[in-house]
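Posted in: Structural Biology > Protein-Ligand Complexes

Title: Requesting predicted complex, fe (iii) ion in pocket

I'd be grateful if someone could produce the 3D structure tokens for the following input. Sequence and ligand are given below.
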Amino acid sequence: MLVLPKGVRHIPGHLDRDEQASLVEDIRAVVRQAPLYRPEMPRSGKPLSVRMTNCGDLGWVADKSGYRYQRQHPVTDAPWPPVPDRLLQLWTRLTGETRFPQACLVNFYDSGARMGLHQDRDEADFSAPVVSISLGDACLFRIGGTKRDQPTRSFRLESGDIVILGGESRLAFHGVDRIYPATSTLLRDGGRINLTLRRVTA
Ligand code: MD3
Ligand code: FE
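-- Reply #1 --
Done. Output follows.
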């Protein structure tokens, strides 16, 4: 049997077009202060196909020396810009958490980018959920269990969809198998943006 881990909430079309466009403007402002860069695989230094940046107190980075959260942009060394208010409000409304997210990872996928199956476990606190927001072109998202060899399920994430990963699903293996080019007109030059809001420290 193939069952999604408990605690996954997929909310298709949660954000209307105007909200999506406002979020894109917020993210453009973040990217002007903290440019997208291309992370690298630890050890090999092989570049990832996804480009990234962050906002918030802590940002997730990947380079030859490993995966970690840090306060500065790895290229400019500047502190990350703050998480836009609109995203903080969304987090509070969706999670009911009293604490704000410490990190907002911004992933940008061009039409050929993908993200291999992985767990998110660089955080010291898994008690809060992760909130994921999809903007732009659709993707094929895959999620399995908390062990790599468990069966997986795939579904499309469209622009405006939200996924909330709480409970058991917080440590589920997941990835992005492909982007469906030109399936959204939200981003003038195409591609997909994914935002993940997280608590990091205990
Ligand atoms: C399941 N991002 O940034 S979002 C990531 O679409 C990441 O860019 C993907 O995986 C993306 O780490 C997937 C959905 C998602 C986000 C975080 C999760 C699923 C998750 C954390 C735990 C389990
Ligand atoms: Fe992840």
